[in-house]
């Protein structure tokens, strides 16, 4: 099953390497994940600037080495987190193998139902904190 996600996408990286983009690695990530997982939500955060001082990054001219991804897809249905992460890693293995390619990925992989549950939970927490903030202070009138 994972093999299906890993194969057939290596040409995407070559396709983008000839384009002039200020974010070629992000473009490849977006293209591969979109093609393979058809995500309802895909958020890509480039956190490379937070890690530029690390020893492993010395000598690197790449400004795209550390990414945080939030992916919501039906393709994750009935799969546990490790399997979902393996799917994404398999898609991006060529980019991770490059000397100054992707050095680190932080993944948040959700099904559409899980995303809705998290949004509802967050909305409930926000409402609860508003209720607490609006609650009048009790005063003793005796």
UniProtKB/TrEMBL annotation:
Source organism, top-level taxon: Eukaryota
Polar residues bias locations: 117-129
UniProt GO cellular component terms: mitochondrial matrix
GO terms, biological process: [4Fe-4S] cluster assembly
Classification via Pfam families: BolA
InterPro entries noted in UniProt: BolA, BolA-like_sf
Region annotated Disordered, chain positions: 113-142
Family of the protein in this entry: Belongs to the BolA/IbaG family.
Protein name: BolA domain protein
Natural source organism: Ophiocordyceps sinensis
Taxonomic placement: Eukaryota, Fungi, Dikarya, Ascomycota, Pezizomycotina
């Amino acid at each position: 099953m994972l093999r299906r996600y890993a194969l057939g996408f290596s040409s995407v990286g070559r396709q983008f390497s000839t384009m002039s983009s200020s974010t070629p690695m992000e473009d490849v990530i977006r293209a591969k994940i979109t093609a393979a997982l058809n995500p309802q939500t895909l958020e890509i955060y480039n956190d490379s600037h937070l890690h530029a001082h690390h020893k492993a990054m010395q000598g690197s001219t790449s400004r795209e080495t550390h990414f945080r991804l939030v992916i919501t897809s039906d393709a994750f249905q009935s799969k546990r987190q490790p399997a979902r992460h393996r799917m994404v890693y398999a898609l991006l293995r060529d980019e991770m193998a490059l000397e100054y390619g992707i050095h680190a990925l932080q993944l948040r992989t959700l099904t559409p139902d899980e995303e809705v549950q998290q949004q509802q939970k967050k909305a409930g927490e926000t409402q609860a904190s508003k209720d607490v903030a609006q609650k009048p202070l009790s005063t003793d009138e005796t």
